[in-house]
């Protein structure tokens, strides 16, 4: 951690978004002594976790005039991380077994995550800082400060000046639609997972699902409950892959990638197999988008790399007035939001100083060169994968907060291994009771809990 050079000061900070990242940013900024206004275009906190049965009118979300639905959550969604490692560090995501309306499972449904975030917001009085139904439409630097233009539900615009802006607008709303040769003349239906809600519309269909990680694995199995056949196109699979899965419904196949789509309705895979499909579901990820941000050309998004961003948080020449929480995807997201937020709050107060803009750029250029040397494409710049825990430790060191507990990292790693080896049941069959034990001991030692969940009765405490 770099020592403070300035007296500690309180700043007037705008936070854009009241999802998990905006809520923790507001909390950390507030406890560092800053005044905070959170802008949220929805009527409630929770962001992605506010399930809406409604999807966008354009199933691929390509029409720029479409009405945007923020959430990408589907009805059957359960978390893809165990709850112990998923929650914020001093507000654990433990089952609320005193309340029968809550979902106490280790991998609970999306409704439980929303309830947890609402509890968190209530506990730390964050809702009082939020302006609901208020969308930020423009953010620009003005004389060393930031002008934020917002529009409320009555369509009234307002300009305000802030010392700093923390961008927490989420990045699972703008679909990335993979390009498939021949798809434009293929006659079937297409949908991106952003607009997938329930399997009903796929009844008796032959469906191709592109992508086989968290959403792809879930959605293919959800659709298979009602579809005639489901064929997964998996980029991670060898070119000759052709495997029928007998579980859960005996109508699911895994193939390699798609070779081409044809006018006669068939989809041909790289393994040489062809299926006559009714629908294609794209579980191919999302793109970063900051439609409100005007930095006079300083920042850009090139092949899904948001640049330049020092440690995925600060644009060197605009720091610390502008920062981004939550850009790196996958892994222990809430904990990453928390550690990044502590860093931003500490830098804004002057308790921690950043390197000079030149040094930050040097660091960034070196990190881009390293990605190049490793053959990692630009579009994966913010995918940390195995280096996530190193990244979190570095940011934690910068902000002077404790490093991530090793049991969290191990829970993520072992959870993902289970997801790959047992996508049907990885949420209900686990082999890491030792890590649950460690988590609850840690919570108890820090006096964050008073009891243990019933799914872990053998602890006897
Ligand atoms: P969001 O939750 O998307 O919140 C952004 C907020 O900003 C929204 O409320 C939005 O309305 C608001 N906003 C956007 N633009 C504006 C504007 N211009 N003005 C005002 N408000 C604005 N993570 C996990 O840890 N565990 C999981 O199991 C898990 N499952 C996932 C499943 C799916 C299908 C997806 C897509 C992601 C999943 N994630 C999971 C990752 C998840 O995105 C993060 O956990 C986290 O909830 C994202 O929080 P966020 O605050 O960054 O974004």
UniProtKB/TrEMBL annotation:
It comes from the Eukaryota. InterPro entries: FAD/NAD-bd_sf (IPR036188), Flavin_mOase (IPR000960), Flavin_mOase-like (IPR020946), FMO-like (IPR050346). Its cofactor is FAD. It is an enzyme of class 1 (oxidoreductase). One of its GO terms (molecular function) is monooxygenase activity. Its EC number is 1.-.-.-. Signal peptide: none annotated. The keyword Transcription does not apply. Keywords: FAD, Flavoprotein, Monooxygenase, NADP, Oxidoreductase. Belongs to the FMO family. This is Flavin-containing monooxygenase. It comes from Eruca vesicaria subsp. sativa.
């Amino acid at each position: 951690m770099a020592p403070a050079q300035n007296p500690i000061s309180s700043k007037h900070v705008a936070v854009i978004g009241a999802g998990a990242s905006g809520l923790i940013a507001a909390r950390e900024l507030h406890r560092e002594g800053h005044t905070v206004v959170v802008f949220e275009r929805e009527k409630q906190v929770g962001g992605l976790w506010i399930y809406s049965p409604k999807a966008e009118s354009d199933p691929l979300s390509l029409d720029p005039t479409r009405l945007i639905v923020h959430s990408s959550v589907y009805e059957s969604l359960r978390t893809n991380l165990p709850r112990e490692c998923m929650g914020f560090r001093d507000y654990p995501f433990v089952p609320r077994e005193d309340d029968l309306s809550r979902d106490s499972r280790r991998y609970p449904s999306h409704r439980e995550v929303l309830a947890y975030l609402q509890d968190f917001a209530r506990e730390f009085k964050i809702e009082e800082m939020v302006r609901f139904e208020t969308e930020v439409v423009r953010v620009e630097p003005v004389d060393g400060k930031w002008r934020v233009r917002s529009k409320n539900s009555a369509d009234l615009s307002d300009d305000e000046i802030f010392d700093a802006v923390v961008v927490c607008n989420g990045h699972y709303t703008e679909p990335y639609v993979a390009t498939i040769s021949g798809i434009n003349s293929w006659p079937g239906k297409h949908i991106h997972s952003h607009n997938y809600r329930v399997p009903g519309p796929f009844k008796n269909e032959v469906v191709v699902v592109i992508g086989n990680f968290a959403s792809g694995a879930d959605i293919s199995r959800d659709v298979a409950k009602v579809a005639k056949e489901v064929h997964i196109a998996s980029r991670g699979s060898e070119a000759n892959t052709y495997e029928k899965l007998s579980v859960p419904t005996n109508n699911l196949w895994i193939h390699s990638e798609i070779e081409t789509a044809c006018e006669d309705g068939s989809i041909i895979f790289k393994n040489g197999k062809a299926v006559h499909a009714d629908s294609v579901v794209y579980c191919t990820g999302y793109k970063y988008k900051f439609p409100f941000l005007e930095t006079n050309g300083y920042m850009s998004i090139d092949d899904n790399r948001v640049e330049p961003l020092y440690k995925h948080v600060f644009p060197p020449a605009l720091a610390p007035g502008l920062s981004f929480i939550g850009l790196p995807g996958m892994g222990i997201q809430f904990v990453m939001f928390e550690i990044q937020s502590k860093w931003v709050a500490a830098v804004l107060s002057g308790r921690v100083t950043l390197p000079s803009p030149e040094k930050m750029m040097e660091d960034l250029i070196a990190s881009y060169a390293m990605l190049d040397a490793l053959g990692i494409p630009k579009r994966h710049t913010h995918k940390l994968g195995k280096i996530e825990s190193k990244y979190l430790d570095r940011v934690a060191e910068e902000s002077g907060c404790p490093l991530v507990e090793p049991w969290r990292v191990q829970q993520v790693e072992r959870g993902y291994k289970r997801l790959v080896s047992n996508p049907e049941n990885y949420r209900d069959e686990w082999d890491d009771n030792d890590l649950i034990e460690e988590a609850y001991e840690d919570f108890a030692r820090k006096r964050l809990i008073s009891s243990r969940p019933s799914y872990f009765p053998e602890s006897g405490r």
